[in-house]
UniProtKB/TrEMBL annotation:
EC number: 3.2.1.52
Source species: Drosophila rubida
Entry-linked InterPro entries: Beta_hexosaminidase_sua/sub (IPR025705), GH (IPR017853), Glyco_hydro_20_cat (IPR015883), Hex-like_dom2 (IPR029018), HEX_eukaryotic_N (IPR029019)
Domain Glycoside hydrolase family 20 catalytic: 186-530
Name of the protein in its database record: beta-N-acetylhexosaminidase
Ranges where the Beta-hexosaminidase eukaryotic type N-terminal domain occurs: 109-162
Family: Belongs to the glycosyl hydrolase 20 family.
Keyword terms of this UniProt record: Glycoprotein, Glycosidase, Hydrolase, Signal
GO BP term (any one): glycosaminoglycan metabolic process
Active site residues of this protein: E344
Catalytic activity reported: Hydrolysis of terminal non-reducing N-acetyl-D-hexosamine residues in N-acetyl-beta-D-hexosaminides
Native organism taxonomy: Eukaryota, Metazoa, Ecdysozoa, Arthropoda, Hexapoda
Molecular-function annotations in GO: beta-N-acetylglucosaminidase activity
One of the record's GO cellular component terms: plasma membrane
Amino acid sequence: DLVYGYECRAGVCRKVELSEENFAKAISLPVCRLFCGNSIGTLWPKPTGAVQVEPLMRQVDITSIDFQLPGKKGKLWQDTEQRWLDMVHAKIPNLKLLRSGGYPLTVLINTPDIAAPKLTLDTDESYILQIAANSSSAQLTANITAGNFFGARHALETLNQLIVYDDIRRELQVTANATINDAPAYKWRGLLLDTSRNYFSVKSIKRTLNGMAMVKLNTFHWHITDSHSFPLEVSKRPELSKLGAYTPSKVYTHEDIQDIVEYGRVRGIRVMPEFDSPAHVGEGWQHKNMTACFNAQPWQKFCVEPPCGQLDPTVPDMYNVLQDIFSDMFELFDPDVFHMGGDEVSVGCWNSSETIRNWMTQRGWGLNEVDFMRLWGHYQTEALKRVDLVSQAAAAPPPIVLWTSTLTEEPYIDEYLDPQRYIIQIWTKGNDKVIKKILKRGFRIISSNYDALYFDCGGPGWVTDGNNWCSPYIGWQKVYENNLTQIAGDYRHHVLGAEAAIWSEQIDEHTLDNRFWPRASALAERLWSDPLDVHGWKQAEARMLLHRERLVENGIGAEALQPQWCLQNENECPVDA
């Protein structure tokens, strides 16, 4: 029933009307994109090492795919294999029309570590993928070599992208002979989701993890709580979620969290919790007398958005509550890195509390900024002690992430923060001069510069008129061009990577997919491949359009970027025409 096929002409896939004369040599668009041009057009992100691909395809027998591992397959590998097979099946529009037969495919996993205890900053995620077709035995072999589970599962992701559905011949095909060496440019490749402003179902979070795995993103930064709601079940403090959740059904139970953490691990993703404090707290903390300026009005005097709320660092028992929260987080998430927030602390909020002012003056402190930074430093020191108490089972105290803030500026950063312990997450603009001041002190950083990586930017205003505060909308091209080497300069070696963020004031699970995707894929290629092509995002555009189709194929509601005509007619929608 097909009318069109494709031919490779001068490195571009050209659509041709099918006829008896050209039917035999015409190919489908995904097959054409594999070989036509100077890069493998179906791979996202681009490999960083040597790539050798022979322009030859072989049909895959979908009923005969076998995985072989060095040792017993545990549940981790069983789940990994099943997900991989599900993605292969997703390529087939109608299984009843699939042509039977083809080469059996054996996937050989060569890794000394099949158990995959957990992803850390020291994990080697590199891999080598070799595909070979033996015509005499009619057998396909995909040989994967990696140091651990995480590298091996990345190789499986690449292998999956090399398998395409040929809609002309109605068969699954794979490159017959290929060798790919690959490793990420950056260790930390993440997405942040705020589940406090609006609640997101476990199903929608898993869908995000699915998309992340497809593009080798490895960190899901879970901003679980904030002043708006406290949707986290805390075993020793059930009142926090009872009073703080929007409804009793909008609470992440321990079972939910364990499910999400394991779901991420199968996909090569660490799930890192953030407990943002001492600001950004409120709902759930009622009746404790441990907060200042909760829901104070007019809110503009006390915080950046309603409802306001900050912990009161002068209340000793408040640290016991923190310890119970941290204890559950470490038990459930087993984080190799822990985020303690530290965002947007308001001096005006603390200064509005008579209790806090009296506590400070009794100690001979003043009530100026330097004194409130001393109070913040006191809080951070005491809160960190509680983190260390609950993480004693770890081989070493976990690194702590804090957002850029007044505390990370001179002179306070030198007085209160240790570069050997703290990682600083940047949320200001990429050209902010404070970034290099932080880097030159030896701090490692994670970049979330809002001018390229805040995906909630571009929408109607709330608590204001017009558009929201960080408008305009950020296109995937700007995400792709957000070069961390340019941001860090000579201190690139201190950059762990980056995260794109969705702060959910104006986003919920019904609009989640098209806010993250496919822009998060642009971030993924920046962090995995760190492309240096002089043509920038333009050289990636054709691949991006095809990649977006793959996201949709796997149940992710990725935003459309162009008319489908542009996908089918490569280079016919040029920017500079």
